[in-house]
Amino acid sequence: MTAILLPLTFNLVISSADGAVLGACLALAIATLLFIFYIQPDASDLAPRRSKLDQLLERRDTLYDNLRDLRFEFRSGKYSEGDYEGMKASLENEAAMILAEIDQVTESQVRRPRGPRSAESERGPR
After folding, report:
1. b vs e for 61-81, b when ≥16 Cβ sit within 10 Å of the residue's Cβ?
2. Please, what sign has the CA dihedral across residues 76, 78, 80, 86?
3. Which H/E stretch holds residue 53?
4. pLDDT tens digits along 104-126
5. What gap in Å lies between CA 27 and CA 33, rounded to an integer?
């Protein structure tokens, strides 16, 4: 009977290097599962990073680029004068609204006191 069992037995011999690799793989698998199922993202991680002022400044720059491109395309003959004036007025109105909103945002961020100025501050130091 022992002769029959010998070929069927399976000897598993793990060297110390194989054990270290196996341990590292097991630790990585456990860490991955913990990260996937137990770590929740913080609400601040999902929030947009750009402030309102950054968004307004980007929109202002885009409008200025559009006005410059419109002027170039009008000069190259792509638009009639009536179309150009209409589109230009629309872009300028939108730019004016954006600039007013930028002023509101920056005023609310700075909030400098605007009390009466002394006569010395108006004349400057002597």
Report:
1. eebeebbeebeeebeeeebee
2. negative
3. helix 52-75
4. 999 887 765 555 555 555 555 54
5. 10
